[in-house]
Design goal:
Blueprint lengths: L14 E5 L3 H7 L4 H22 L3 E8 L7 H24 L2 E6 L7 H13 L6 E9 L1 H18 L9 H6 L11 E4 L18 E4 L9 H12 L9 H4 L1
Parallel strand pairs: 1-2, 1-5, 2-4, 3-4, 5-6
Helix pairs in contact: 1-2, 2-3, 3-4
């Protein structure tokens, strides 16, 4: 039986998030510039998006560029921004053909103007698509997201628009970048690293974590399916006992 046929439709994660790690190491292992790793990684993005759409994943968030990544060498940042623009232009037909809506989270104002324009254009063109949401985390940091939300909530309390006693988890969720997305069910990180790296800290509170040694440029549809199969074998208890779930 092929791996795709082993996927149980009734136990799919609603929201998958991916930390796409290992582009630089992939390039170094092959004696190439880091840019080659980032460029090769775009194939992995395409395959991941396509297979998620095929099996029925509703939401996919990809960690494309963190707030900390701005500290990388200038030439690498320039390459990444060029790749972002060229990839968006290239993949618009794929998004439309697969009924995929593009969204983005993070401090998007920090992106180069050209990247912002291209991003907004694709977001606008795909806004009515409904089969799957592809969410790009760009210039994103979870601590910054939480701080931003806390500031907005505190301003509302100060103005009298919100009572302190009414603040609950739902209030916090409504003030995150991902206010219109469900919590993450499955978090995948490639390249063998086993850390969260300031990614969706609130949203992954009950996510299943899956770490693979595969470097991102080598990540293919089969690797995504393996992660989903692993997820489907797990028992998600959310603080309860197995007996309570049964």
């Amino acid at each position: 039986m092929e791996i795709k046929e082993r996927i149980k439709q009734g136990k799919l994660p609603e929201h998958i998030a991916v930390i796409m790690d290992g582009n630089g190491r992939w390039a170094k292992n092959k004696g190439l510039l880091r840019a080659a790793g980032h460029e090769k990684g775009t194939t992995s993005v395409r395959e991941t998006v396509e297979i998620c759409a095929e099996i029925g994943i509703e939401h996919l968030t990809l960690f494309a560029f963190s707030t900390e990544n701005w500290n990388r060498p200038r030439i690498e940042i320039k390459t990444l921004m060029k790749l972002l623009v060229s990839s968006l232009k290239k993949e618009i037909d794929t998004l439309m053909d697969n009924d995929i809506r593009l969204t983005a989270i993070g401090c998007l104002d920090n992106l180069p103007k050209k990247a912002q324009r291209e991003l907004n254009e694709v977001i606008d063109k795909t806004s009515k698509n409904s089969m799957m949401t592809l969410n790009l985390a760009l210039s994103y940091g979870a601590r910054e997201e939480l701080l931003n939300g806390i500031k907005i909530i505190s301003q509302k309390v100060k103005k009298g628009d919100l009572k302190e006693s009414d603040i609950d988890e739902t209030t916090v969720q409504e003030h995150l970048y991902t206010f219109n997305l469900p919590d993450v069910d499955l978090l995948i990180r490639t390249s063998g690293e086993q850390r969260i790296s300031n990614f969706l800290l609130w949203q992954i509170a009950y996510a299943e974590l899956y770490f693979t040694p595969v470097l991102w440029p080598d990540f293919r549809k089969e690797n995504l399916l393996e992660a989903v199969l692993n997820y489907q074998k797990r028992e998600r208890r959310f603080g309860k006992t197995s007996e309570q779930l049964n």
